Amino acid sequence: MSTSLNILQKYWGYPAFRPLQAEIIEHVLTGNDTLALLPTGGGKSICFQVPALAREGVTLVVSPLIALMKDQVRQLRERGIIADAIFSGMRPSDIDRILDNAVYGNTKLLYLSPERLLTDLARERIRRMNVSLIAVDEAHCISQWGYDFRPPYLRIAELRELHPEVPIIAVTATATPEVVQDIQENLQFSKTGKVFQQSFARENLSYVVRPTEAKEQEVLKILRGVPGTSIVYVRSRRGTRLIAEQLRRRKITAAAYHAGLDHQEKDDRQAAWIAGDLRVIVATNAFGMGIDKADVRSVIHYDLPDSPEAYFQEAGRGGRDGKDSFAVMLYHPEDGERLKRFLAVSFPEISEIRRVYRAIGSYLQLAAGGGKGESFDFELTKFCNNFGFDAGPTYHCLRALEKHGYILLTDAVHQPATVQFVLNKEQLYDYQLKNPNLVKLIKSILRTSQGAFLEPVKIREGNLANFLKSSLENLQSTFRKLHGEGIIDYRPAKDAPQIVFITERLDADNLAFNVQEMNFLRERAEQRVETMIGYATLPRCRSVQLLEYFGEKDPPPCGRCDWCLEVKKSAQSSQKLKGDLAFDVIKARLEEKNSLLPAEVYALFPQHDKTSVANALEHWLSDGLLLREGLQIRLP
């Protein structure tokens, strides 16, 4: 592993690998298929980025999140590593250039969104690439058992037809045992394939559920009791704004963050929070993916999340520096029913799905039979206003169409304005002589943007307008004029999400829906919701509930969550451990396992000596609350 360690130290500056990273990388470098399950903040990307640099050729990285792809490419380039990304909405000429660089150039990592991976153009170029490794990020998306199933992921294994000898590494932070099995089967792991799994336990993270009917006051109480940086997760955009404003009125620096903000606002607020200028970011689940901030002391969930996977990933953003941190969920008795109502809306009727699909064709003015593989800017609010639709149900219709492989709805991602000179240098010089009023603009572009004659270069229009002492509107108008005259190729900046047609546009009545699959996905979603309600209400260790969900066998109580501390407090108030809470712990475990040995009972209370636990057992046995059969303890 000396070469890998040298790479880690040279490009990342870390002195050593984190737990399991070295073993995973070694397994990959010996040419084996690998599945790495590491918790949020566990360094998953290192597990394929280091092998990418250690092997000759290009590593293909499949990722569903455009913002995350762009962020990883940016970080790699800052480290001097040649990386690029292809995703929906890019110009064909840019895609062509990036693919050519991967075939003929020195590209080490090429990120691709799954729907772009297997276009005819991409397949032909990938066939000609010297591919050293295929990496699948967010690998749980390949499984219908997972909470974020994406049909295009099912086709990733087709890459093996193009490069059958190339190993695959799949990485994820959240996977149940069923998802782990699905990932291996759907990616066609070889017999030498191996799963590396780090325990999901977080010893420095205290899970807490706070039942409350006054959540605003509870947020303030937590922030006053736990110093340091915090994230407050809220389900709605409006909620982020209201809570951030309430915190500011209490002299706590805070800002809202949600998908409706423009690119600059998101960047500014994120940067201020990372730098410590903002103490609290109040966000929807649009915030956090790829954020590298180690000193988050508290993560507060204002609303009940709809899955253990989402909760574990979001809560896990606390305490990545290994210091004590808190993951606090605020729970109101109505939260469970509210989540169930939200779930019902998430699975619309087929007739509604057809109606939305038909409206999409009209909105985009796309003829039947056309559109396959094409991307279209798509603003949900504008679309709903045009057709009188409600945004929430419409969004879930789009997701249903996505899960059946008809469209893909991408996340909103900023694409900056670009300019490329169409004229050669001599022609441009002549143009400047005839248009002296544009000389300063043209020279500014040439001075600040290298290669503008060879390829599109990014332009910060706001900064350029300020330098030229012009308004942004006037600058953009000038760019459009130059574009129309054939002087430049100008592409304005955009922030809109996109719809990608995976198939050609069909007649809505001809859409085929797998009702059995839809029912299966609904049942899985219902199970996840019930699990979250149970997490918030069952008298059990919070950590144990999460670890068991992710397949860990007989995890010990954490000793630091609110439930464990309550049990400890109850036990301390009664030396004989007669407290109802302590008995409930044993009862809950007996309902799972039917019987326990005394040693297993002692293990439930690691903070107590065996004598006190044994005395409590005798008390419960004498009262008839428990029965003894041989060595086994049972419920009556």
Notes on the structure:
The chain folds into 5 domains: 2-197, Rossmann fold (3-Layer(aba) Sandwich), CATH 3.40.50; 205-332, P-loop containing nucleotide triphosphate hydrolases (Rossmann fold), CATH 3.40.50; 340-413 and 496-519, Arc Repressor Mutant, subunit A, CATH 1.10.10; 417-491; 541-634, Arc Repressor Mutant, subunit A. Helix content is 46%, strand content 15%. The strands form 5 sheets. A 7-stranded parallel β-sheet has the order 3-4-2-5-6-1-7, with helices on both faces. β3 (83-86), α5 (92-104) and β4 form a beta-alpha-beta unit. It is an alpha/beta fold and 636 residues long. The protein has 27 helices and 22 strands. The longest helix is centred in the C-terminal third of the chain and has 23 residues, at 515-537. The mean pLDDT is 89.
Q: What distance separates the N and C termini?
A: 57 Å
Strand arrangement, largest sheet? 3-4-2-5-6-1-7
Helix content range of the residues, please? 40-55%
Kindly give the count of domains.
Answer: 5
Indicate the CATH class of the largest domain.
Alpha Beta
